[in-house]
Each structure stands twice: as structure tokens, then as C-alpha cells.
Amino acid sequence: MKGKKLILAFDMYGCPNRCLHCWIGHMPNVLPEDGADDFVASYFYPYFERIEFYSWLREPDFCPDYRQRWEKDKALSKNAEPLRFELSSFYRIARDDGYIPFLKSVGVKKVQLSFFGLKETQDRYVGRRGAYEEIMLASEKLIKGGVIPRWQCFINEENKKEIISIYETAKRIRETVCAGLEFFVHEGSCDGENEKLYPVRIEKDHIPDELIPVYHGYDKLKTEEECCLLLENDDTSPCFETGDEITLYVSNKYDVYYNFTNMTKPWIIGNLKEDEPDSLTEKIINGDTYALKKAKECSWSGLAAKYGDKTSKKAFETDDYKMYLFNRYLNDL
What we know:
Layout (H helix, E strand, L loop, with lengths): L4 E6 L25 H9 L5 E5 L11 H11 L13 H4 L5 H7 L4 E6 L3 H8 L4 H14 L3 E7 L5 H17 L5 E5 L35 E2 H8 L13 E6 L4 E4 L11 E2 L5 H10 L3 H6 L4 H8 L7 E2 L1 H15 L1
Parallel strand pairs: 1-2, 1-7, 3-4, 4-5
Antiparallel strand pairs: 6-10, 7-8, 8-9
Helix pairs in contact: 11-12
């Protein structure tokens, strides 16, 4: 489509983790057949002037030939070049001494690492034994390799005291080893796997005082009660727009989704193996999908009245709360 840019992320190699907070959702790791990347990228070549192709969705560089893979991603992109984000594989950092030099060679200066608590909690949330030791080792190796770690902590009612301990560790590292280490806390979204953590979602008044200065977006944070009051007179329908830049996620089964929220059945746009390119691309451009059609049939006030809890002090940013409400509605259909 003239003027449209496509960001295309294909879940080619999967992820070593099964994080309890994963907003995309848990999916099996399935290695694609030969030529799958060429098929996915070329499917959209006739329709978009610019395409950024990424062979990962959940875990970047989760393949042994990550150097060649990066070059192939660039080759499959069209009139654009994929970007290197502050997201990398701590699984690979802990195991592969050649990985950090590769990251530096492609311009990575910071790497974000996710914490959910101390050893037992971290391992449980990541879904693997040894995950806590790995993330601490990855931090050490990044610092020695000249890359700044950025620690993000997902806080809830069950881990809030442990997050304080992690913050204290971060401060000691800043004082003794790496002054540039970054640290922030947030509550995360409430979709995908993370929706299951709603019962232990942090209440705003329970956020420890010492963490408020490093709490990302604290000034925008509301209680669920406040969100309900904000939406109770909002009769507009949920609206999800793509604009001139469209981001699509493609599963290892070739199902296609927008990047708005989790990769679950209500949000499937189509399938690259089953749908004709002309019709599927038209659906993508026009928002002619099940979820977006259903969005026109409801209002924020109605969703808040049906699914919101006006007595709840759980912490949300408004947009995250809206997505939580809309996904609950979709799940009930």
C-alpha cells in the first residue's frame, strides 16, 4: 500500500522462557520449515513500500547462528532496515561469550533485563530453574563487556518486598561497579499471561515509598476505582488504529495478529498459508477483523460497568486498563 510501512515480526525460533507476565501469551516453540522466512517476508512485498523484517517475536537472537540471522533479516527487509532494540537474550548472554561482542558490533549500548523477584520467585516467573543466577551473570558480563544493563522490575503484591532488595542491589552495583546501571519499576499490563496475575496486582497505596522515585509512569498511575470513574460516562467505542505504520506479529503456525495485545484466537487476522494475499492484506489495512468489529459493538462505559471493580485499589495506567476490559469482553463472546 502506497506510503504504508510494515514492521513484520515472525516467531521463528520461539523463546526459552515461559514468563508469567508475558503479554503476548505462551506458545509452543516450533522450528519452521526451510524457507519460512522468505515466504513470510515475500508474502507482503507487493503491498508495502517499506518492510522491516524480524525473525524473532518473543526472544531476540534465540538461535545459534544469530550473526547470520541478523544479516538475513536485513536482506529480507525492503527499503528499510530492522533496528536493534535494548532487548537481547539473557539466556544467550549467560552461555555465549561471543554474543556481547556481536551486540556491540551492531550498535547495542544497553540491554534490558526483567526481574520478578529474588531466586525462587524469579525462577518461577521466568519458568526455568537457574533464571535468577543467569540474569545476574548476564548483568555482570554486560558490565564487563561495556554494555549498560537496564533492570526493569515487575511489581505485584507478592514480590514487592523482594523488589526493594533488588533495588538495593542495583544501588550497590551503581556505587561500586557500574554507575550507569539503570533501574525502574512498573506494574506491567494486564493482558495475555499477565491477566492471570490480576489477583496479586499491586494496589497503588501498597507501592513501597522507596520505590516511588524509580516507578515508571507513577504520575499517570490510577486505581481501578479511578479508572472506572473515568470511563463511566465515556460512550465511545474501543478504537485501535494502525496509521501509516503497521506492526504485525506472525506465529510459527503463520497466524497473523496486530501488535495491540495478546496473540489469542479473538485477535487473529488470518493465516498466511490459508488466506489469499490480496484479501488478507485488505483486512489488515481496513481493520476488517473479528476483534475490531466487536469493538464497534461496545462502549468503554459499558465495559467498565460490566467488568470493572469500583472498589478495587489495584494500580493501572488507563490504556492498560482499557485493554484489560476489552479482552475480558472478547473472552466472554
